[in-house]
Amino acid sequence: MAKRILITGGAGFIGSHLCEKLLQEGNEVIALDNFHTGRKNNLEKLFANPKFELIRHDITDPIKLEVDQIYNMACPASPVHYQSNPIKTMKTNILGMMNMLGLAKRVGARILQASTSEVYGNPLEHPQKESYWGNVNTIGIRSCYDEGKRAAETLCFDYKRTSNVDIRVIRIFNTYGPRMIPDDGRVVSNFIVQAIRGQDITIYGDGSQTRSFCYVDDLVRGIVSMMDQDHFIGPVNLGNDGEFTVKELAEMVIKEVGSKSKIIYLPLPQDDPTRRKPDLSLAKEKLNYQPTVPLIEGIKKTIQYFKASLNA
Ligand code: NAD
Ligand code: UDP
């Protein structure tokens, strides 16, 4: 049955793909965004659809809307952006989460929180299972995001315990694809944009740190399937469990772009996790979730997108 769905952070990278998918399924979609890292043109194709609305609003302020479901995606995801105003990042994660949980409670909506693999910090367990409690610095430069997201999860479970709010919690691992912003600072967009422009490819540290990269279409399928679960509330890891070093990623991007860029090595930022890879057993068991896009294929599609958008 068609629903009225609120997507906070709807003008952002993942949020805009989610808007598109939920409209395709016949729902009414309200995207809400303060345009910190989101852009109106991510949603351009949707403006003609009468079932779509876009609201400029900041979730750190309360809002009254009548909706059936809330996807709480609002929060800058790139370290460069979330560290640019760390106190605001904390406010978005805590005040914003409280406002959205309050809204869900008032109208009886189901609410899904976009949590993150960062709740595991620099993990001492590998791969990371949902049962792992993490290794997080409380006072470092990543803490506004990591601790903000951890507190947001706590709020979800406390609203469930005290007020029976219908929560779902997903922990997203590094996701990439079309509509990332070129100067967003995340590794996939940085490397592709540098390779296309023939600039040096900036590896932080020696490039031996690992990440597991998920193509956005796979992730969005997992997100919607989690929202539609009747009883399972999470938290559940979502991503792709292929693990690559940052150096392998740089070499892949240079080859696929056919670039003459050279690799240069810059200092590793503080608290940069050494290894990261999701254990996806729970997602497989409960959601029948299986990522389908191999890194090389997703990188090719993302290169195509950036070539077109940088020339536009
Ligand atoms: P993004 O920065 O592209 O999107 C975030 C969106 O939220 C932007 O449109 C931004 O303008 C909006 N926003 C930020 N603060 C807001 C506020 N206070 N009020 C209203 N809107 C606000 O990032 P993304 O990659 O699309 O990430 C979406 C969500 O998924 C985030 O919550 C992020 O923490 C989470 N996540 C993403 C990844 C990833 O690899 N992309 C990994 C883990 C978690
Ligand atoms: N990174 C890099 N060069 C860049 C941007 C990032 O080597 O130009 C590294 C970064 O230090 C980290 C990894 O790539 O080890 C992933 O960084 P990103 O910011 O994309 O995500 P996160 O660290 O939050 O997983």
How would you summarize what this structure contains?
By secondary structure, the protein is of the alpha/beta class. Helices cover 38% and strands 17% of the residues.
Task: Break the fold down into its secondary structure elements and pairings.
Elements lengths: L3 E5 L4 H12 L3 E6 L18 E5 L12 E4 L6 H6 L1 H22 L2 E7 L26 H21 L2 E7 L2 E2 L10 H11 L3 E4 L5 E2 L2 E2 H12 L8 E3 L5 E2 H12 L5 E4 L14 H7 L7 H17 L1
Parallel strand pairs: 1-2, 1-4, 2-3, 4-5, 5-6, 6-11, 7-10, 8-13
Antiparallel strand pairs: 9-12
Bound molecules: nicotinamide-adenine-dinucleotide and uridine-5'-diphosphate.
The site of nicotinamide-adenine-dinucleotide (NAD) has 28 residues, from helix 1, helix 3 and strand 5.
Cofactor: NAD(+)
Pathway: Nucleotide-sugar biosynthesis; UDP-alpha-D-xylose biosynthesis; UDP-alpha-D-xylose from UDP-alpha-D-glucuronate: step 1/1
EC number: 4.1.1.35
